[in-house]
């Protein structure tokens, strides 16, 4: 064992102090904001964030910057995407993520400013709502060939609030253009898009609601993951375990999802070292269970890109995707934007009439207090 019982008690105490100070996942997310790299952001002055709130959705036009496939200006847009996401997103932001990804930065072309960021990637290996929908657990090879997941679908604010910006970005994820770009980049043939709401019961609705037939709710997620320790405590525990492991890291520096694997290893080592002390081990596991319960069950949503046999293809019962003649055309990019435009115009006019239109840029570096859940 790496840890002595006293070492294990020390780590268990650190876990308890860290997690028991949070009453909700919102508290945890606010804590995570302390460790964002705002100081080095080149765009903290909001020069790039959409702020022309006299403009109606009827007058807007959009350009998609696919920053992982473009040749010109790739470095600039890569940095811009990351910094805008840091300034705007409510969830944890990871800048360097291994594996497949396709990132879109959405520009409103009349103003030259940006209204949102999208990051798509390989699906999670397990999803209860997905398995229930498909009637089985799909093998990993077919899952990666046929499915994509939306990890960051974040409108700038208050574009999101004023214009249903989250719904615009969600619809773009369902477009044939998104499927085409991802397929070309990774030699896939996508039949299914999946994402989850950022929060569960903390909020009665999400940006994915009200978008049928494009996006449909398929159930609540199930997760037993512990929210990751952030900041100085994470670094402290890394060093603590390294010293006790003959000055070697528990998890290689090059490992994917290293932070998750590292913390899982810490929990395992504490449990082993407290094996002969059942009361203390039980107390530690109560802390872990408390941390797990901070993560709410999230609503899961899916899209089939307008194909009528997506389920059959994903499960391997059929080979070729068949477009649904009744609605396949609705998933074209222009049609999705026009669908959003009608909804957004009604929203915008209503807010103006009621005097509820927001006109101040909302970022985590602004001086005013903003909503954590947006």
| Main beta-sheet strand count, sense and barrel state | 7 strands, mixed
CATH class of the largest domain: Alpha Beta
Helix content: 40-55%
Which value, in Å, is the CA radius of gyration? 22 Å
The secondary structure category is alpha+beta
Q: What is the level-2 CATH architecture name of the largest domain?
A: 3-Layer(aba) Sandwich
How are the elements arranged and paired?
Blueprint: H1 5-19, H2 25-33, E1 62-66, H3 74-88, E2 101-108, E3 113-121, H4 128-134, H5 140-146, E4 147-155, H6 159-163, H7 165-173, H8 176-186, E5 192-196, E6 216-220, H9 231-244, H10 258-273, H11 278-294, E7 299-303, H12 310-314, H13 333-354
Parallel strand pairs: 4-5
Antiparallel strand pairs: 1-2, 2-3, 3-4, 5-7, 6-7
Helix pairs in contact: 1-10, 1-11, 7-13
């Amino acid at each position: 064992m790496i840890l002595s019982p006293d070492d294990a008690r020390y780590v268990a105490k650190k876990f308890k102090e860290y997690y028991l100070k949070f009453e909700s996942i919102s508290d945890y997310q606010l804590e995570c904001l302390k460790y964002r790299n705002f100081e080095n952001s080149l765009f903290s002055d909001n020069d790039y964030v959409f702020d022309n709130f006299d403009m109606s959705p009827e007058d807007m036009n959009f350009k998609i910057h696919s920053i992982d496939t473009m040749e010109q200006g790739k470095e600039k847009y890569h940095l811009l995407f990351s910094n805008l996401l840091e300034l705007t997103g409510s969830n944890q932001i990871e800048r360097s993520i291994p594996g497949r990804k396709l990132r879109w930065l959405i520009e409103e072309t009349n103003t030259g400013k940006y209204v949102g960021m999208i990051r798509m990637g390989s699906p999670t290996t397990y999803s209860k709502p997905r398995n229930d929908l498909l009637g089985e657990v799909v093998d990993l090879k077919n899952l990666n060939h046929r499915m994509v997941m939306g990890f960051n679908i974040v409108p700038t604010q208050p574009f999101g609030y004023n214009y249903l910006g989250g719904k615009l970005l969600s619809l773009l994820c369902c477009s044939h253009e998104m499927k085409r770009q991802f397929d070309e980049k990774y030699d896939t043939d996508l039949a299914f898009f999946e994402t989850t709401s950022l929060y569960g019961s903390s909020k009665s609705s999400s940006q994915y609601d009200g978008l049928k037939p494009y996006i449909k709710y398929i159930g609540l997620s199930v997760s037993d993951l512990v929210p990751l320790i952030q900041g100085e405590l994470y670094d402290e525990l890394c060093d603590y375990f390294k010293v006790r492991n003959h000055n070697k890291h528990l998890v290689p520096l090059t490992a994917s999802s290293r932070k998750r694997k590292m913390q899982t290893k810490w929990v395992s080592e504490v449990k082993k070292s407290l094996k002969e002390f059942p009361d203390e081990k039980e107390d530690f596991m109560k802390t872990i269970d408390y941390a797990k319960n901070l993560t709410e069950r999230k609503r899961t949503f899916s899209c089939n890109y307008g194909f009528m046999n997506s389920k059959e293809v994903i499960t391997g019962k059929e080979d070729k995707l068949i477009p649904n003649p009744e609605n396949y055309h609705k998933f074209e990019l222009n049609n999705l934007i026009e669908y959003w435009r009608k909804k957004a115009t009604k929203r915008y006019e209503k807010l103006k009439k009621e005097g509820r239109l927001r006109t101040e840029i909302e970022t985590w570096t602004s001086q005013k207090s903003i909503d954590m859940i947006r």
